Amino acid sequence: MRFFSLGFCATLLLSAIAAAQPHRDLVVGMVQFPADMHPNITNSSIKDYIAGTARRPMTGFNAAGQVICLLCTEVPSLANGRAKLVTRTDGTPGMEVRFTLKPDLVWGDGKPVTAADVAFAFIVSQSFTPSATVDAIDALDATNIRVTMKRVVYDFDRFNSNYAVPLPEHIEGPIFRAASDPLDYGRKSEINRHPENPGLWFGPYRIVEFRPNEQVTLLPNPHWKGPAPHFAKITMRLVENTAALQANLLAGDVDIVAPGNLGITLDQINGMAKTATDKFDIEFIPAVTSYEHLALKTENPLLKDRRVRQAMAMAIDRKTIIAKLFEGRLQIADSFMHPSLANYDPSVRTYPYDPKAARALLATAGFKPGPDGILLSPTGDRFSLEITSTAGNRSRELVEQVLQTMFKSVGIELAVKNVPPRVFFGEVTRRRQFTGMLLFQSDPPLDWVPIPYFHSNYIPSAANNFTGINYSGLASPPLDAALDAALGELDSTKRKALWKTILDIAADEQAEINLFFATSAVITPKWMTGVRNATRFGTPSLWVEDWRPK
């Protein structure tokens, strides 16, 4: 009887502890899954979202759009002497920038994160996509890093690209040096073969399980010296359908969903704002950099003529799409530059909905109606295009259906050919394996010059190991020149004038047809707080240590 009483008391005690510490684990649902977790092999928002919990870039942004240190002690500037203008050995102007690592950064196996890890990360990144601006990154000692720039650039303090995310040289170095080529290294990298190795991660969490196309499990990193994370375990789980993901969320099988198009769609959240506010806190925040758009394959004979692309832009009634599908919560994107940003110019050409003008412009380009009303090109080819996006995303599927109707009204046939997100971001975009157009969202950082999106050097190809993101294939020497000049202009007034040229050329080319700026919805269960707004802070998982029960 005494033994039973002690056991009974122990059970009560454990129950009381569990009751006092609810929600110790967190399950995150997402509709995309990364092909790998190596920062230099593929680019995707879902990889960045997962990786934000386990590693960090050197710098980030605060809510006001100001550059802040994440790994460094001080943001470099010309004023504080951490950045300086230099003359390169070939006589051209360049820069040297110095960063100092915080002293308490530690890999998950107990090894310190050092400047050598940052220098090694740059060497690895160069084997995949050589930097257009950085010549070298050198470790001056254990904590100090010198970045030697090939040229003067205005964003010398933004050290947040993948080449600035430390890689564990003590683990990856021997593998990289023994590999026959970059792809061989990618296959043998410990990050891809054994991502559960604790020495690969230095953030608040570390990956302990990576089940491809299923889930990632994260546990707190015992060597993390920053604010302690609150959840004992985070599971990030793939649900390859937005409807199923919403059902999981409502049923409590997942606690939160990944942001934007990584999770449930805006129309679904609109519905939840009417029916589920007893369970969730929902905040809608207009985005200023994230925009949904079409990337047209410019070498397709049907799309080569910019007048055709301009006509296609005029065939789209963005206002109706936003009103009917998204309850008016989105903002029309007449440009990829949001009107609230400093470099926006209201005089840049726009393409309001005008199907009559679209048909006239197509006729000017030599297209004539065929027997069934679908246009024929000057060479007699039927104007039929494929549109490809991420399968299982209900909002995008609805947008595609509306686009089919709108394009058909001007004589263009549109066939939907969607693929799973892992295929879309793994092969279709990376290797440009599409014939007509892509529908997807871009999420560039604040105050950016869009060289990776529009410069001809960033058209994915074998030459850059298919890591460029100029998916349209636009190659415009005047645009390349304006992009390069804007990147190197330190005077913000002069840079704004160059921005006008960039915006004018991009508007004229219409290689990308912009649809609307996203509205970010932060949706959290009533018991949780600390999830930051992605439109202001970037990837919200960079602040995962703030996620906690109320």
Walkthrough of the structure:
- The chain has a six-stranded mixed beta sheet. A five-stranded mixed beta sheet has the order 8-9-10-1-11, covered by helices on one side. It has a four-stranded antiparallel beta sheet with strand order 4-5-7-6.
- The N terminus is likely disordered.
- Among the domains are: 113 residues, Dipeptide-binding Protein, Domain 1 (Dipeptide-binding Protein, domain 1); 233 residues, Dipeptide-binding Protein, domain 3 (Roll), CATH 3.10.105.10.
- The chain has 17 helices and 21 strands.
- The chain starts with a helix and ends with a strand.
- The chain is α+β, with helices and mostly antiparallel strands and 550 residues long.
- 31% of the residues lie in helices and 21% in strands.
Concise synopsis of the structure shown:
The protein has 550 residues and is α+β, with helices and mostly antiparallel strands. The protein has helices at residues 2-20, 45-51, 115-128, 169-178, 182-188, 190-193, 242-251, 266-275, 306-314, 318-326, 355-364, 394-408, 421-428, 451-454, 477-487, 492-509, 534-537, and strands at 25-30, 59-61, 67-69, 83-87, 93-100, 134-139, 144-149, 205-211, 215-220, 233-238, 256-257, 280-296, 331-332, 368-369, 375-376, 384-388, 413-416, 437-442, 512-525, 528-529, 548-549. The protein is globular and about 70 Å long.
